[in-house]
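target protein:
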Amino acid sequence: MLAAAGQGDDVWGHATARVPGTNTFWMKPAGLGLEEIRPEQLLLVDLDGKVLRGRLPRHSEVFIHAEVFRARPEVNGVVHTHPVPATVFSSLDVPLRPIMHEGTNFVPPDVPRFTETSDLIVTPALGRSVARTLSDRPALFLVNHGIVTAGESIEEATVNALLLDKIARAQLMVPGGVPRVWTSDEEALVKRKRIYNAQSLESRWAYYQRRGLGRLR
């Protein structure tokens, strides 16, 4: 689904889903593209990055997921991808603005930027730094690297990734990435409640699923 939306990056990028009520999660293995994964290839991993089930290699950036799950018990899905528009936008010194409906899913308050490194997040310490920067937000930009999104389900985390890339791509169309007019915080909160509720998430997920499966046949 992420690949069908243009968020594939050869064999890089990954998504995870927590096993409900546990400190373990299912993760895409390394060496395969997002569109290639089959259920039997998934890895079961703990919060220390140890593979408990599965034979394929795990991604070195497992600590993004592990530390977000550790810091936020309510989160059950995490996505990390390298979509070109959002990654390019991360390099700008301008905040994301709700210039379209999609932006109100994230702003206010803001989409934070992780600036400690643009390298891979390959240690628990870096993973903790990412989790601290993400805080209670649904998404962040890894500057010159990609995005991280979180949700109460893998469906929500995936939808957040798709929406973030869409609004970042839209803002890049504005000269300098700096819009002159955007939705106020007050109205954005009203729109978020109306447009991005549980029913909307379910409908979007069903649509993305139909579209994704259709493109990969």
